[in-house]
């Protein structure tokens, strides 16, 4: 077993495509990882535009393919030869806030680890996943052989990954949480289901979303984004002051 000082370098990869997120999201993710991960790592950004990224971040050129956009580019991570990298690949979405130590992302045993989605139906959430590069090439190869059909039948990369790797292991559920599904982040949870925003309701500015002590990563899937609630509420969603404390 490797000690912290002897552990092999971990390849961390994020994806920035299009204009939804600017380089500051990548740089902040890199900063959070640097402060919270004691294992040796190299940080990569798969993108078609590397302008504004921290010079320590390795830019992997994203080959924009006709018909692909957004989350579907995540599937290129599973290519047999992914930019010649070797060993473990840890993928992190840009809209994460790291609030605690994340050595568990390296230490948790398993060949393929991914989040169990916060939905009633069993499926994966691909915001944080780890696997050995090249070992799950069938995820990409099966997709690219019938991309048009897959994109029509499956609602994003997460459903497709679940289709291809249903046996994947999951991260500790108390370590990776959803801002919207796991935390006390809704000001009026009952009215929210009735479309409270249509009645002009907004979360009071004095309400703050509590951060569970054991939480290490908060996932901001969909809306709001971290910046939307760092200093003020967003619609019915409470302010989350932990974002301002950790997201830099």
Which helices and strands occur, and which strands form pairs?
Elements: E1 10-16, H1 23-36, E2 41-47, E3 58-61, E4 88-92, E5 96-98, H2 104-107, E6 112-116, E7 124-132, H3 137-145, H4 147-153, H5 157-164, E8 169-170, E9 176-178, H6 189-193, E10 217-219, H7 226-229, H8 241-246
Parallel strand pairs: 1-2, 1-4, 2-3, 6-8, 9-10
Antiparallel strand pairs: 4-7, 5-10, 6-7
Describe the fold and architecture.
The structure is a single chain. With 248 residues, this protein is of the alpha/beta class. It has two domains: 10-94 and 111-170, Spore Coat Polysaccharide Biosynthesis Protein SpsA, Chain A (Alpha-Beta Complex), CATH 3.90.550; 176-246, no CATH class. 23% of the residues lie in helices and 19% in strands. The chain has eight helices and ten strands. The protein has helices at residues 23-36, 104-107, 137-145, 147-153, 157-164, 189-193, 226-229, 241-246, and strands at residues 10-16, 41-47, 58-61, 88-92, 96-98, 112-116, 124-132, 169-170, 176-178, 217-219. The strands form two sheets. Strands 3-2-1-4-7-6-8 form a seven-stranded mixed beta sheet, with helices on both faces. A hairpin with a 7-residue loop joins strand 6 (112-116) and strand 7 (124-132). The chain is globular and about 50 Å long. It starts with 9 loop residues before the first strand and ends with a helix.
